[in-house]
Amino acid sequence: MNNSLIITGASGFIGSQLMNFIKTLNISFLGFSRQENHNNLQWTKDYMDIGSKADKNQICIHLAGNKIISSVDDREIELTEYLAEIFGSNLVYISSSYVYGKNHKSLITELDSLDMVNNYSRRKAHCEEIVINNSGSVLRLSNVYGSGMTNNIFNHIYKEFMSQNKIVKINNALNTRDFIHVSDICSAITTYITDIKSGIYNIGTGEGTLIKDLCNIFAAKLKVNKSAYHVKSISQDDTMLVLDSNKFRNSYNWEPKINIDAGIASWVKDYKRELSDAK
Are 177 and 209 in contact, with CB atoms under 8 Å apart? Predict the structure, then answer.
């Protein structure tokens, strides 16, 4: 096979952005998706069929997974076991910072203990263990955002302001999160696959943003006067989830390039265009 890179979940938010990014680098790849009618993707009814279309010498970036927090579906674990057997040290599993739980008040390193608070984080942690036991790699991502994502805090904040209510209601406005632009994630992944050193790596900005402050940034980009709204947090939960990515930064001379202010400005512009195109 001429394609040196395999991507599962290629039609998803990160997967589609990653493919576009890789195209600019002239890296050959084969993207797999369970969704039909996606141009330039290999449709598969079951990812367990990948073995007949790939070989162990290829690098596999495993993005396909169940993002439903409450789901008890273990097929993601079974698939990871299957891919780990095929690709071994060439398997790069894309995981989440949520395996660390939420009880933190400082930057989180790869040495911090895990706290599986729901089925989603338990699945991720189980898959991580499978990958590492087969000499593969795990990239734990912080909160990824960018054009094309749906049903997330950015969409919610935007809709709250567009409703022109004086009270902007946010479930967890007192939480602090590490938001990283998807293009920075793509640059980290493509940098990593050029020189894979198996292990676990945090990928984030290392900078926390209070969700309440995120609302204020949105207000500025939407030209909403501060006196015209008030952010109300439904919950008084004030957890912090911010990653220390120094291990990856130092190993690969990598830095995120898009700060949250510029990232939101770009997101708002793209989202307005998407809404206009949909009319």
Answer: yes
